[in-house]
Amino acid sequence: MTKKTILARIEFYNFLSHYFWIIDQMLDFCLKQLQYARLLTSGALDSIALSTETDNLISERENILQVRKEIEAYLKQVKGLSSQIQGSISYCKTKENECSITVRSIKHRS
């Protein structure tokens, strides 16, 4: 049995860049929807007066505040993911000029 080195050239950075771009567009859509939801919660909070003594409205105000905190957390996560994806897109764009990478594998002959 002899060992022979095979060089395989794999061209995929252009595909990865496009794939990451699609993901970034989806994250951008999510970000816009979350910003819209945050505006809705602000409007809902503004419509409930602070001086209202009704237990029902106080409970609803607390629920809205909780939802707003969750929205803020999601916004932060989506922004973080988006910046990571944009970094990956930049990396792929620089690698696109190289066009390929080399992977070494060993083929066994019998």
Automatic annotation (TrEMBL):
Domain of life: Bacteria
Protein name per its UniProtKB record: Uncharacterized protein
